[in-house]
Amino acid sequence: MPKKENHQDGFEGQWWEYPILRNALMAGVLAGVGFVLAHAGFISEQVELAFYFVAIPLGGYHWAREAVEELFTEGEIGIDLLMLAATVGSGLLGLWDEAAFLVFLYGAAEGLEEYTYARTRSAIRALLDLAPKEAHLLREGQEVTIAAEELRPGDRFLVRPGESIPTDGTVKSGTSSLDESALTGESIPVDKEPGMLVFAGTLNLQGALGVEATAAFQDNTLAKIIHLVEEAQERKGKTQQWIERFGRRYSPVVLGTSLLFLVIPWVLGLPYGEWAVRAVVLLVAAAPCALVMSMPVAMAAGIGSAGRQGILIKGGAHLEHLGAIRTIAFDKTGTLTQGVPMVTDVVPFTGSPEELLALAAGVEYASAHPLARAIVDRARSQGVIPAEVRDFESLTGTGAKALVEQTVWHVGKLDLFKKLGARLGKNEDTVKQFQAQGKTVVLVGNGDNVRGLLALQDRIRPAMKDVIRELHTMGVRVVMLTGDHALAAEAVARALDIDDVRANLSPEDKVRVVQELEQRFGAVLMVGDGINDAPALAAATCGMAMGAIGSDAAIEAADIALMSEDLGKVAHALRLGRRVRRISRQNIVFSLILLAILIPSALLGVLSVGAAVFIHEVSELLAVANGLRVRRPLHLSAS
Questions:
Q1: Tens of pLDDT along 512-539?
Q2: Catalytic positions
């Protein structure tokens, strides 16, 4: 079983260099040499015993100490104590070769297990190496090289092309492209310009950047990710907790039964030696090592693998839940869509599109409304110069107006122009057609003279249709939850082939819908931005926040956080959860079948100590090896 204190700091060497595993292997070599030399007649029995007396404490010290500490500090009888009792019992029976064999194999299995944990932790902690050890601090116009750990919020530093960002910050000067794959798992470089955030461990590919630190080195995004993954590996799912509770109750029963095997022959006058051997065999055969190992290795490997892909899973329970998800509820705005409206159509009723766009952009130029900014951005992208206006006035909830030359022009909703007495005639059908497509229609006119319209829509994220299609191939039902109006929601749902859509929802309504979905379809994954959707994220079986890089609120709000906005990682997380669940179940079934065979064999005296030790330890190694399959790359056809 894993001892957290031994793999807490990780390990970066080769497997044979890991201290516990190395000692076990050395014990095995010593015991093997002594056994071979003695049976070949080169050494006496006393010298053979000397080999065993060195090998047994060398290979067993680590886990024997754990057994005694667990017994006296926590009052628990664990698997280590069963193995210690079996080793002592074998020695008392004169089976020193069997005792040495047990110590070697059990020590090797324990060492390999702990080495696996240590390597998983080291792989995550190695992310810290992505951040440079030094930073080029800019102080009073001079460049000073300091240790990165000395950076504090407010410090300004220079990052040249080919260098990594030492800590989180805001770009103050320069433009460049950054490779953020270490944090997000995305290979496409991200363009950066003044005012944009940059993160520790990301690689500057092109121009020099002047950056103002927003976090100390030990508090940057990279350090937070490592801390979250390490904490997650210690949090256990329900199945794992049940197995450990079973082990704590089961181990004392095995030890008690073995003691009875020593008492019964003494009371009934049966051959003592034969029953003593059975007691030792039972201790080994009935120890549930493979069962207890059935989930931890797979969970640790799964959480570590996900972390390296920019998916933070905050505990074994959530990884376990991912394997059971068959329904996903997506927020719409900012999740399925980009969350930023864009002008999709410019339709003049009179004049040219450029004239219409110039008028609309002129009136909306001073407005901070998202629709207004989208209109101004469209004019800028087309090289259209906004009309010169004065006396701008925002009409809350309906639009805006301003004076262009000597004429008052309005830009706003259909309701605004109806109040102004405008008659659209057949053009009202055009407005309704755009609205039926889920688009927001903005009219441009003066008084009852409507010059034309602009249609705007929140753009669906690129490749989102492929993501939904992949989820469908996995047998997942996809639901969209939104506070937006039904026409806009249904337009997005049709475009993405979403199974069910619920519109006009308040945050409380989203919680209610999530609970309904859980009652009807079982485990539900809610995917949102991690802030506005926090109640629904908390109510779902699993809550997943997207685009969490640099956002403490998004990371805290959900059980799982995607560091980038790539929703293709949702399917990856589900496949990983299913793989972990499948492998863990394989290990559990294998372990229970093995116990069902070994325990009766031990009771009937069919097994020798050596055979019991060999079968027991090989089964534990198989459980570890099977759990490590989680780390293999996932393929699209996997499930």
A1: 999 999 999 999 999 987 656 778 888 8
A2: 331
